[in-house]
Amino acid sequence: MTSVRGRDEALMRRGRARRRRKLSAGYSLLEVMIVLVIIGLALGMVGPQLFRQLDKAKTQTADSQIKILRTAIDAFHLDVQRYPTTAEGLAALVAQPPGANSELWGGPYLQDKVPLDPWGKDYVYRLGESREKPFFLYSLGADGKEGGDGPDRDIGLLPPTTTTSSK
User: Which residues on neighbouring strands pair with residue 137, listed in sequence order?
Assistant: First the structure.
């Protein structure tokens, strides 16, 4: 009889051990919630820094592209002895404009098409009115509107501002 009782006790102990393993095999709802809160706090601290770096990278890309476009415009000027008109725009750097002398035009001055700014918009090009600033070339920034601060600010060779202050 002792052997039957001993065997029953051993089976009961194994059953309890299995139940304990099943209970400890998963995570409780509280543990999962704590982990999610920690992840949320970490993202809340890191996320804004990540977006600031992205804005900084786009601004630097716009600066680099403007330098490349400026070099191409200067090469156009050296060949054709004038800058592209406002109407011709930056397209004059990749295809000969109708008004340019075919013997002088040595383009295309860009390897590919005219790039868009980092925000997916066209660069603004305008012929200037003085020798000091023969042309204006700039990106309107993230908002696509004149003016702005931070990532919305205009970047490049900007025209003079026409703000008037009333006193």
Answer: 125, 157
**Of the candidates 146, 148, 145, 126, which has an alpha carbon nearest to the alpha carbon of residue 137?**
126
Run of H or E residues at 100: none
- Contact call for residues 108 and 95 (beta carbons, < 8 A): yes
**φ/ψ of residue 103, rounded to 5:** -75, -30
Task: Name all domains of the chain by residue range, CATH numbers in brackets.
Answer: 61-157 (3.30.700.10)
H or E segment to which residue 157 belongs: strand 155-157
Q: Residue 108: how many CB atoms within 10 A of its CB?
A: 15
Residues linked to residue 157 through DSSP beta bridges, in sequence order:
137
| Global pTM exceeds 0.70 | no
pLDDT digits (tens, 9 = 90+) for 59-115: 899 999 999 999 999 999 999 899 999 999 999 999 988 877 778 888 899 988 999
Q: Where are the alpha helices (DSSP H) in the chain?
A: 2-25, 29-80
Selection from 55, 80, 73 nearest residue 123 by Cα: 73
Q: Per-residue pLDDT tens for 9-67?
A: 766 777 666 666 655 567 888 889 899 998 888 888 877 777 777 888 888 999 999 99
